[in-house]
Amino acid sequence: MARMKLELPERFDFSIEIPVRIENINYGGHLGNDSLLSLVHEARLRFLKANGFTEADIGGVGIIMVDTVIIYKSESFHGDVLKFDVTVDNIGKTGCDFFFRVTNIATKEDVAHVKTGVVFFDYKARKVAPTPPEFTDLFGRQTEKKR
Hints:
The chain is built from two helices and six strands, in the order E-H-E-E-E-E-E-H. The protein is α+β, with helices and mostly antiparallel strands. The chain starts with 13 loop residues before the first strand and ends with a helix.
């Protein structure tokens, strides 16, 4: 069976630590895949907030997730503290990719590599919107520096 591949950017612009709670554990006794995606969402929200945005207001429009790639590297358990390194790349006319490296603070092992693709979305008009200049001004320069 073919496996997905995901190459992470070399540089990350933001880090946040989030503990694994009991509600994140599945019947296998480890971090559930649905919970990991929720924690990625929390990390993205905090990244945006640290840069003066919300998911509902980035230059007057919101974002909507259009795809996700998660490559699992190791298990994570209740009580682990995970470090989420976050960056933006591939900024285009109507969207971008958020990349996440998820690491267990105690073991230093990568737990997952994640990419979420988003488009900017005008929720009032219910349609895709152009990438706000405020976003490109802030993160476009960072993207150029990484290349």
